[in-house]
Amino acid sequence: MKTVKVAIVGAGFAANLHLKTFKRLHGVAVEVIGITSKYEESAKQFCFTYGLDPAIIHENAETLIRKADADVIDLVVPTWLHVPLAILAAENGKHVICEKPLTGYFGDPGVPIEQRENVGLIDKKIMLKKVLVDCKKIHDVFKRSSTRFCYAENWVYAPPITKAKRLLQSSRGKILEIRGGESHSGSHSKYASEWKYTGGGSLVRMGAHPYGAAIHLKIWEGMMRNGTPIYPRSITAITAKYREFLDELPSEQDYIRSRPKDVEDWSCGILTFEDNTNSVIFGSDVTLGGIENWMNIHASNVRIECKISNNNSVMAYAPTEAQFKNEYTIEKIETKAGWSHAQPDEEWMTGYPFEMQDFMECLLNDREPQSNLELAIWTTKAMYSAYLSAETGQRIEIPKGFSLD
Ligand SMILES: NC(=O)c1ccc[n+]([C@@H]2O[C@H](COP(=O)([O-])OP(=O)(O)OC[C@H]3O[C@@H](n4cnc5c(N)ncnc54)[C@H](O)[C@@H]3O)[C@@H](O)[C@H]2O)c1
Question: Which residues lie closer than 8 Å to 62 by C-beta, 6 or more apart?
Fold first, then answer.
């Protein structure tokens, strides 16, 4: 069995997802040889949880990336760090696994991040221009580099989506419309409330998954049909800040846990592709009932409904919270009383083991992953064009390249 040496930057929610997944791979062993996080304590706790030697903890991301004897750097940090750390990794001859979304606008780089205020209020055209510059930079670096960029968009690998692709391949139907969304009642991450860390609110944090999956499906459809990818062309979108009026409600009327500062907590975009077909995509931080990940595909001769979460594969009932208190049911559910859509294997259903299997095989066999830098860049361009649309009230042509002209 071949071994891939991984160094992890970050020790939070997504790092846990990745670590659990490493143990489920076949034909390849993953050895975690380095880790760092903003707080040493959380890196120590992470090592303790997974039986890793705390001697692998590095002082910071830069020393880890430069010095650790790793094949691949796994970036599970807030989005503002993705591009600079991915570029540093490539420059040091290391492959990259990078969480979604690829990048965004994070304010004036000349001002220390802690001191940046209200970044979310900046003109969205300025944001889109800067995001295009970053996308070009990382595109150029990896084009020149012999290292690979693996974009951790797990929806590409989620079994309901991969099954949908096989069904579409069988039917040969044309995808006319995709409806999809990711929703829950607010992130666990303290970084999620501020634009300067995440590059936006529910549109990029949650919407990155359905936008990414829809774009992947249309690129794939074009390749399957005649070898020509179908890329996004334009977008019209709206965003909302519901927290502003939730704060006015009595506490028993507000079970939403998100506390956005300068980010939106709801979004909807209509993404039009080069072949004039459409996707309607939701990203919401104000939805109760546990995480909801779904994608419905309306094709010319078939209709396919993918319920990645909030599906009914296991419906569990308990009269009170007490009965299931020792067992996980579904991510971000408010209560375990009553009926629960209990996920029998949330990681499997969400695609993480298949994603990581593909990434490790790519690194060993020197091939492109299914979820790659091209998908990461298109998703980012679509989402930042969505922000510009929401601000101006206009349909925005999504830049084909890296400039607005
Ligand atoms: N694919 C998915 O399903 C999924 C789910 C959750 C999060 N994510 C993505 O994963 C990334 C991390 O999100 P999270 O939910 O794990 O956040 P988190 O807040 O739970 O964890 C972030 C981690 O990054 C570390 N960190 C912050 N600044 C750092 C720095 N300067 N140097 C080193 N470490 C630093 C923190 O200490 C923490 O350990 C984000 O890009 C997010 O969009 C993806």
Answer: 88
